[in-house]
Amino acid sequence: MDAVTHRRVAEVARLPLASTTYWFESKEHLLTAALERAAERDIERLRAFLREPPGGAADPLGLVVGAILGPSDDACPASRGWLLATYALVLEAARRPALRDVTTRWTEAYLEALKPLLAAAGSQDPLADAELLLAAGDGLLLEKLASGDASDLAPRLRRLARALVNG
Fold first, then answer.
1. Is residue 31 part of a domain?
2. Which residues, 6 or more positions from 32, have their beta carbon under 8 angstroms from its beta carbon?
3. Domain with 124 in it: what CATH number?
4. Residue 119 above 90 pLDDT?
């Protein structure tokens, strides 16, 4: 986050410095806009996935895992760079209250999407199970970033989802 400056953003975007300072009055405003954009893109990906799930809606637990990790069963849907930037921004929300509203809305979008899927799978407490699965998904994705190996993300998350649903 220390590297984010108006000058650097203007350079990367190939815009005059005045453009970034006109639209974003502070570094906090730049970071908030970046996090909002990341959240919007991911929430749209989530909604698109749920509108037209691969293989239909026959497997609610598969949909839960796919919603969290993306449509692929074998790999993380996002690039390493995107994940690093996103987690850095989310961590920054712990330090900057202006970012917290965005992370809260992002999490709520996932919880609202996962609750009916978990209920359909037989969850007795879909909200609590969704919260646990999101936290586990974040942990697994962070592990992927550290290790570079995403080969078993989906099976591990599916195993947890099955355990939560089956009590």
1. yes
2. 98, 99, 102
3. 1.10.357.10
4. yes
Asked if the structure places residue 109 within a domain, the reply is yes
In a domain, 142, yes or no: yes
- Return the H-helix or E-strand segment holding 57: none
Q: At 13, list the tokens.
A: 């975007």
Decide if pLDDT at 134 tops 60: yes
Cα–Cα distance, 165 to 144 (Å, whole number): 25
Tokens 């995107």 belong to 82
Among 22-36, 66-80, 104-118, name the most confident range: 104-118
> Rounded distance, CA 17 to CA 32, Å?
18
Residue 151: pLDDT over 80: no
Burial class (CB in 10 A: 0-12, 13-18, 19+), 85: middle
Would you say residue 97 lies in a domain? yes
- pLDDT tens for residues 55-104? 666 788 888 888 888 755 344 446 777 788 888 888 888 888 888 999 99
